[in-house]
Amino acid sequence: MKDRDTHVKKWAKHYTTGGLRAGVMLLILSGMLLLLFPAFFSGQNVRNLLRQLTPLFLIALGMLLIVLTGGIDFSAGAVEAFGGMMISVLIAYGNLSSVQGACFAVFLTLLCGAILGACNGLLIGYLKMEPFIITIAMMSVARGLTYLLSQGQSVRVSALSQAGRALLLFGRAETPLFRIPYVVLTAIICAVLLSFLQKYSRCGRLLAACGADEQAVRFAGIHASRYKCLAYMLAGTLYAAAGIVVTARTCTGTPGIGSSIELDAITAIILGGVSLSGGSGTVFGTICGTLIWGLSQNAMNLFAFSPYVQQVMKGSIIILAVWLQRVSRHDHLK
């Protein structure tokens, strides 16, 4: 009994230190950029950076839920593109020109994202199919649906209609107090809700338990498949929300958006201390990992690195982060 308690305490310590380590990395990187480029952290530049990172952060939150259960999802970018195209088509051609119509279009778009995610969850959780294969197949399905909706063309939402103005206001406007962009405020609300779900609800604890030891969860009489399906459904909703954010910034639905963004999201959660083997990771770590990745990309642009060098460095960062995570996990659970 004592040995089991000691093991649980060590696992819990590892669970929380990943996010703290990411926070320290973020502070160090921010300090270096502040010394080298003092104007980088001006108010307007910070707001633009946060706007730019919001879609990635929403997708990283969805990826966190899935990786906690021991899964993976390569359909994120395609579902994001489908969400962006869906709301564009609904507002532009669906006779939803009022503000209420825009809200209804948002609801339908999020619902469609949840349905696509639930399809992944049903196949993976209940039919025991491999997440890698199923999510790649869903990536093809969602991308194909996006091109079917748009006929391969970008769809422009008119800013002259009330719905178009409401969408553009959401994408570009800021709150009167503290000048927080509305899209960033939306991401903050999602982060708070998911953090509460993870820390204080039975559902959140079971999501992590499914990834840490699914067999033990089943022996306890709990349907692990149900929670896996829930994770994929919530993730699909967040992916669609990311597509809405991208479309709101330009009032244009583009079928090609989101290409390879799932790799950026996986990189962000790894940098945030989320274990790809499942069962370990926090919303705080995901926030830090997303900011680290965004600041790193901006730093590479400031230093005028070529896109090819950036690709090499991106892969190297992933390898290094996974290796450090493995070493840390081994040391804590040894």
Task: Summarize this entry quickly.
The protein is mostly helical and 334 residues long. It has helices at residues 2-36, 43-68, 76-93, 99-126, 131-150, 162-172, 182-200, 202-212, 214-219, 224-250, 261-271, 283-302, 307-333, and strands at 155-156, 252-253.
Residue share in helices? over 70%
- Judged by helices, strands and strand pairing, the structural class is mainly alpha
What is the CATH level 1 assignment?
Mainly Alpha
Radius of gyration: 20 Å
What is the averaged pLDDT score? 88
Beta-strand fraction estimate? under 5%
CATH topology: ABC transporter involved in vitamin B12 uptake, BtuC
Low-confidence stretches: 1-15
User: What's the structural domain tally?
Assistant: 1
Structure description:
Residues 1-15 have low confidence and may be disordered. The chain has helices at residues 2-36, 43-68, 76-93, 99-126, 131-150, 162-172, 182-200, 202-212, 214-219, 224-250, 261-271, 283-302, 307-333; strands at 155-156, 252-253. Helices cover 78% and strands 1% of the residues. The protein is mainly alpha-helical and 334 residues long. It has a single domain (10-333), classed as ABC transporter involved in vitamin B12 uptake, BtuC (Orthogonal Bundle), CATH 1.10.3470. Helix 1 runs parallel beside helix 12, helix 3 packs across helix 10 and helix 8 packs across helix 10.
Topology readout:
Layout: H1 2-36, H2 43-68, H3 76-93, H4 99-126, H5 131-150, E1 155-156, H6 162-172, H7 182-200, H8 202-212, H9 214-219, H10 224-250, E2 252-253, H11 261-271, H12 283-302, H13 307-333
Antiparallel strand pairs: 1-2
